[in-house]
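Data card: per-record layout.
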Amino acid sequence: MTNRGRAVFALSVLFAINTMNFFDRQILGAIGEMVRKDWGLSDTALGTLGTAFTLLYAAVGLPLGRLTDKARRTRILSAGVLIWSVFTAASGLARNFWQLFALRLGVGVGEASCAPASSSLIGDLFPASRRAKALSVFMLGLPIGVAISYAVSGTVAHQFGWRSAFYVAGIPGILCTILALFIYEPDRGATEVHAIGGQRRTGPQTGSRWLLGGLVLVALLYAVFWSKTSDWVPPLYFAVGLVALVVLCIAFRKGIDAYMEPFLLVLSIPTMWWLILSGALHNFNMYAIGSFLSPFLIRYHLTGMDISDATKQAGFISMFVYGLAGVPGLILGGIIGDAVVRRRADGRLLVGAIAILLSAPFHYLGLTQPAGSTLAFATLMGIGVAAMYVYYSTVYSTIQDVIEPSLRGSGMALYFFAMYVLGASLGPVGTGLASDYFTKRAAVGAGVTEFTRQALEPFRGEGLHMAMFLIPVFGGLLMLVLFAASRTVAKDMEKLRRWMHESTTQAAAAESAEAAN
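The structure for this 517-residue chain is written out next.
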């Protein structure tokens, strides 16, 4: 097989894996309203279930990112797909909230392998001039996986119950597990202009000091919090645990410095700070929509229908609004981003910022549509979502532009850590909290004095409607952050190019001198 054929096959398998990645994680968003009513959950609890996997996803992602930069990426990816597929299928066996929460944590462990390993492989399979398009194809797995998940999960849940939706997802995951082992493992830096190989710059050796500073900050914040309830007297386990962590940090400072050095190198790149913040804001919105779009449709636009029928119909509407609408956004984002970046280094991020600027008013207008205006809501919301998907094509490729090949797994892992801890974890639960707050406020306005499940149920549509207005607000903030990132990216790209040129020149000179001797 030619190099081009290997690259095409690899990208096809990675696309399939990413499709299943988002298919599996979106199942709960498609059937969440059935689960909530079955177990009598609040929107806060439903949001917590929607973000359970992100907790371990983010924590496990950092060591997996480092492993991706050192070990065979195809094996890491294959093992990850197997793990998340098994835990997804097992989610159908859960009999209560906490069992399902624990199983979703297991899904997060497996899915944490997908982004660092896949993006690192794509970076070494495709040159910079074609990288945004390749990443766009890979990221097409997001809207297509989400769309299929809504359609399939909603239909299966309608016919056989919500538990069956989890069982169905396990079968294609096993096939992807096998296919991942046949992906060609390219050399690191194989497609770069400068044959940099596994070399990378040296980062700050100050990891232990950063960790100690973080522990001190946690102690101060916790002391202030505890002072509100216990007169500055923290519990014994907190004090003992904090002292133990400080002692361990000092005792193993050299090992901590060595482990954190590549991550600090990533954070020494100014553009990465803006991109990490942008990831948190973007994922807040994406996961808020993913978790509550179907429940919002059922409560606000599809009222009066049986829950099973409403779940099926909401699934098909969401398939277009949150899933298929993203396909043109990803494709156009990759094509336009690659075209503009040839003219100016900050082109990709400017394209992303403009797209997000367009998405916010469409989301706002969609949410202002009256109850029952399903077509108008879906059209306006779908256009806004399509513009949001441009983010992936432009930002993911920019990360590749400012980080050397041998550090891209760590860079993506750090980016995803913040993206999921600060964005995906807070988006659903934050929207759920806001929904519960506005639900109670609406109930109080109607004269309700006892907040029982039955008393609050008629007001949940209005409460979730108000909470969803967080989305255009965060969209405006995201646009500003992407514009700020565009102001620093050209300098960081030039700095990386200059280092790669100097490193390869020095290596060539050393080889020539050795050959002469």
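Known properties of this structure: The CA atoms of residues 72 and 185 lie 7 Å apart. DSSP finds 23 helices and no strands in the chain.

See the next section for split statistics.
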